[in-house]
Amino acid sequence: MKEYSIFYADDDEDDLMFFEEAVYSLSGDEAVKINLHLVKNGENLLEVISQTAANNSVVFMDLNMPAKSGFEHLEDIRSNSLVATTPVIMYSTSADKQNIEKSKKLGANYYAVKPSSFRDVIKLISKALSLDFNTDTAPPNDFLLNKLAI
């Protein structure tokens, strides 16, 4: 059985529930176990990742959160030696090129625009879990994870 840990930081309750349902539908596969850690605004994200991150961990991070933006949380992750190599996917409703480029510049592994359909969220999460972040690096044309998940 393959085991994964997913950390999802978002301040929107509906987005958290939607993502959680998608993860649980994937967890129904007996060959996959997913430990999901929901963080409501990112404030204790570093602490949660530091305490529970393991191999096959990935962070999905919303850009627009109160107090600190997803960009600021990404900078915190990349500057903390305990969690700096944890894969991060910036996960936002925004498809703005500046946000995508800034995410890449700050060290995100991928950027994903939040899909509106449940099926597409499942495909996106599945694609993220299929990546080997130890060897896979996002070439400039493939930084947008949505393109790879279709």
Structural write-up:
- 32% of the residues are buried.
- This protein has a five-stranded parallel β-sheet, sandwiched between helices.
- Helices cover 40% and strands 20% of the residues.
- The mean pLDDT is 88.
- The chain is α/β, with parallel strands linked by helices and 150 residues long.
Short recap of the structure:
This protein has 150 residues and is of the alpha/beta class.
CATH superfamily: Response regulator
The CATH class assignment is Alpha Beta
Secondary structure category: alpha/beta
Instruction: Give the helix level as a range of percent.
Output: 40-55%
Poorly predicted runs: none
The CATH topology is what? Rossmann fold
* Radius of gyration, CA atoms, in whole angstroms: 14 Å
Count of all domains: 1
The CATH architecture designation is 3-Layer(aba) Sandwich
Principal-axes geometry comes out as: globular
* Main sheet properties: 5 strands, parallel
According to DSSP, the number of beta strands is 5
* Arithmetic mean of pLDDT: 88
SSE string = EHEHEHEHEHH
| Measured distance between first and last alpha carbons | 25 Å
In what order do the strands lie side by side in the largest sheet?
2-1-3-4-5
Count of helix runs: 6
